[in-house]
Specification:
Helix 3 links the parallel strand 2 and strand 3. The strands form 3 sheets. This protein has a 4-stranded mixed β-sheet. It has 260 residues and is an alpha/beta fold.
Length: 260
């Protein structure tokens, strides 16, 4: 989220965003920076619909590729493996194929079955937040859900990683710490230490998501709009100033972990 806030302060436009969307996607849509979205869902979890994405989607201002969650995983894997597509039965017999005319149905060379050819989702850049990283690009995620961050990193020409803690390489030689390293350091292009950088979303097990802030964010879509939220929390402010506005790093790190 800290990296997304930097994008919001920039003059970047006409983005194609590939995401399991949350407030990251909503903010980028509200700022007018998004041309196309490739997504499987867009939600704030306990608030079912991402409000600013919903507005952009309903207005018809976005090009979209709306696919199944498993299809997105296969698209990222195809990009990571440097192949043009992966065949799957996901989407067969559903409107996923109807609403995505670019998806191709192919015949199996081994039997009489048909398959959806899920194309590779090759990314120019992936923005990922991790628990810990070293300066060489070794990254660690200890939370129970990786959100496919490993495949986003592998599918991208440049994986830009923010981390809550920058550690020495020797850290990963202790105990079972290396077990939580999920992709090869050669896939990481740059590392940016930003403690609390996942706020208002969670970085389990370090901190949970900020329920009060998400409620304020969602309400802003109806009460003042994106401009009000942007001016209050992002415009002309550094990441440290943003965090001070939401209670500071200590408050972020005390946010309770979510229970699903």
């Amino acid at each position: 989220m800290a990296l997304v806030r930097e994008l919001l302060r920039s003059d970047v436009r006409d983005l194609t965003v590939v995401a399991y969307g949350g407030a990251d996607l909503g903010l980028l849509c509200a700022s007018g920076k998004v041309k196309k979205v490739i997504f499987a869902f867009a939600t704030l979890d306990f608030i079912p619909l991402e409000p600013y994405f919903r507005q952009a989607r309903q207005s018809g201002e976005l090009e979209v590729m709306e696919i199944d969650e498993g299809m997105m995983l296969l698209g990222l894997r195809a990009a990571a493996w440097n192949i043009p597509f992966i065949p799957t039965n996901l989407g067969l017999g559903t409107d996923v194929v109807k609403v995505n005319p670019d998806l191709k149905i192919i015949d199996s060379p081994y039997d009489d079955k048909e398959w959806v050819a899920m194309p590779a989702l090759k990314l120019d850049a992936a923005l990922v937040h991790v628990d810990r990283a070293d300066a060489r690009g070794v990254c660690q995620i200890k939370g129970p859900d990786y959100y496919m961050d490993d495949w986003f990193a592998r599918a991208a020409d440049n994986a830009i990683v923010s981390c809550d803690e920058l550690v020495d390489t020797e850290y990963f030689a202790r105990g079972d710490e290396a077990r939580y390293v999920l992709w090869e350091r050669s896939q990481t292009s740059s590392v940016v230490p930003i403690a609390g950088g996942a706020h208002p979303s969670s970085c389990n097990p370090l901190y949970g998501f900020d329920v009060a802030h998400f409620k304020e964010y969602a309400a802003s879509a109806k009460e003042g709009g994106y401009g009000t939220y942007f001016e209050k929390y992002i415009a002309g402010k550094s990441e440290d100033e943003y965090q001070q506005l939401v209670g500071g790093l200590d408050a972020i790190q005390q946010l309770p972990l979510p229970v699903y």
